[in-house]
Design the sequence.
């Protein structure tokens, strides 16, 4: 039985100025979905994948004008156009969301959605994007237009559609020559017709789509392929990089699983000379080069799972001896739910594979995940306040699709936060989430939210508990609002 999926294409925003995807969706004279039937032939010559492209744009993908093109909003848009029956354990509908650009990384060409983040144990949510992995992808038209000519724009968009759909079927990147659909796009020009093929090992993998959950959309999580594809390698045996140093720190050493804990990291170029170093901007667990490792109380080591797989971002970051790169990640949540599920001591470290293939390994930090105390009212109140789905998503995504509900719940969350530092993180994260949605809603709502942003940032800054990185960011946001 051929796996038949409806592939819906939708526009994230329908603003007058937005670019449109090239229609019809044909590459090299063939509909894009046809590449998957041809690449998934079984021994009997019939295809394992039969994708049906829905020709009209699903209006339901459209988001309100002013909605930010960030992960939370894009994932909500995907859930709406795919609208799968999540109880089936596989995705009969695949969504391709065409958006202008990805707000946090404006140069990104495309991404593939794994399980999203929702606090555990929340049944019957309207947007269940934590229920099925690999339901679809997003393509960023303005980011592509910026690096392509009018003639090559369509070619790159369509190539990226096939590439991201390949990830939806859990295909891995191809670094061999000649290039294929699963090769990461180049900066200078799109690949031509000779790259419109899948390598034989990818074809064999796709031909198992009918039965293998590692292949069909909605089956296993991204990167989990059993014995059927390459294993996710361990970088620890690679030779060490001489001058790049990665340092990690954490906002809380002891916390409950639902506390919004942030992991800070700093990448330094430890050298005597004044030279700057330019690196691909891949310091995010959504990139395969960067991994966070968590060793649990039982000694087993696992990867932190990002809710997204990023592709082809030509952005770079520049560091020099006196100018390190800093950022933070909300490590309490990951693809599928909370990161820490067992109480006890955990060890965290990060690895980065530098462009020359050498390993940059961070320091290790020890954290303690506190056991639940069901008889304690302090615990009960923090538990109830921080696991509110709208609050928890805002803390994780630094964005919100439901600002009014957050306004209602925030007072209790701030009041019942487990400690002062958690309270400051809540204030800071919700302020950033509101900042991103300042263009949404009526004028009254927008003005009220602006006041919330200023008050929350002020309170977080006054607390002195934010840590240097978030304090600097909070100050920048606050100054920009004044
Ligand atoms: Zn890719």
Sequence:
């Amino acid at each position: 039985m051929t796996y038949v999926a409806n592939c819906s294409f939708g526009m994230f925003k329908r603003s007058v100025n937005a670019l449109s995807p090239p229609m019809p969706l044909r590459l090299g004279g063939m509909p894009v979905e046809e590449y998957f039937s041809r690449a998934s032939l079984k021994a009997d010559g019939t295809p394992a994948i039969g994708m049906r492209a829905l020709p009209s744009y699903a209006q339901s993908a459209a988001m309100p004008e002013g909605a930010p093109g960030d992960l939370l909003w894009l994932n909500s848009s995907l859930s709406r156009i795919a609208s799968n029956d999540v109880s089936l354990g596989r995705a009969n509908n695949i969504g391709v969301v065409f958006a202008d650009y990805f707000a946090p990384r404006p140069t990104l060409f495309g991404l593939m959605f794994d399980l999203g983040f929702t606090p555990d144990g929340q049944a019957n949510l309207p947007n269940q994007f934590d229920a099925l992995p690999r339901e679809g992808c997003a393509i960023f038209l303005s980011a592509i237009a910026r690096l392509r000519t009018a003639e090559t724009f369509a070619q790159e968009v369509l190539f990226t559609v096939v590439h991201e759909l390949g990830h939806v079927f859990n295909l891995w990147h191809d670094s061999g020559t000649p290039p294929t659909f699963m090769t990461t796009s180049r900066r200078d020009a799109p690949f031509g017709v000779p790259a419109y093929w899948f390598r034989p090992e990818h074809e064999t993998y796709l031909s198992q789509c009918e039965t293998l959950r590692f292949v069909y959309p909605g089956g296993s999580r991204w990167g989990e392929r059993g014995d059927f594809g390459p294993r996710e390698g361990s970088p620890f045996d690679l030779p060490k990089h001489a001058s790049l140093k990665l340092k990690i720190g954490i906002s809380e050493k002891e916390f409950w699983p639902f506390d919004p804990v942030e992991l800070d990291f700093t990448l330094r170029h430890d050298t005597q000379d004044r030279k700057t170093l330019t690196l691909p901007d891949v310091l995010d667990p959504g990139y395969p080069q960067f991994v966070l490792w968590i060793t649990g109380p039982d000694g087993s080591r696992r990867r932190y799972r990002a809710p997204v797989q990023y592709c082809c971002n030509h952005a770079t970051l520049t560091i020099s001896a006196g100018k390190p790169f800093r950022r933070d990640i909300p490590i309490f949540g990951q693809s599928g739910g909370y990161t820490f599920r067992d109480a006890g001591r955990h060890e965290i470290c990060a690895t980065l594979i530098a462009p020359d293939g050498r390993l940059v390994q961070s320091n290790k930090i020890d954290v303690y995940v506190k056991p639940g105390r069901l008889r304690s009212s302090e615990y009960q109140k923090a538990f109830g306040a921080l696991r509110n789905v709208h609050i928890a998503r805002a803390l994780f995504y630094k964005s919100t699709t439901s600002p009014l509900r957050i306004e209602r719940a925030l007072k209790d969350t701030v009041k019942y936060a487990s400690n002062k530092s958690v309270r400051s993180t809540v204030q800071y994260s919700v302020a950033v989430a509101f900042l991103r949605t300042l263009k949404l809603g009526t004028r009254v709502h927008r003005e009220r939210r602006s006041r919330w942003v200023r008050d929350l940032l002020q309170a977080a800054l006054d607390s002195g508990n934010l840590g240097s990185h978030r304090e600097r960011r909070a100050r920048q946001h606050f100054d920009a609002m004044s």
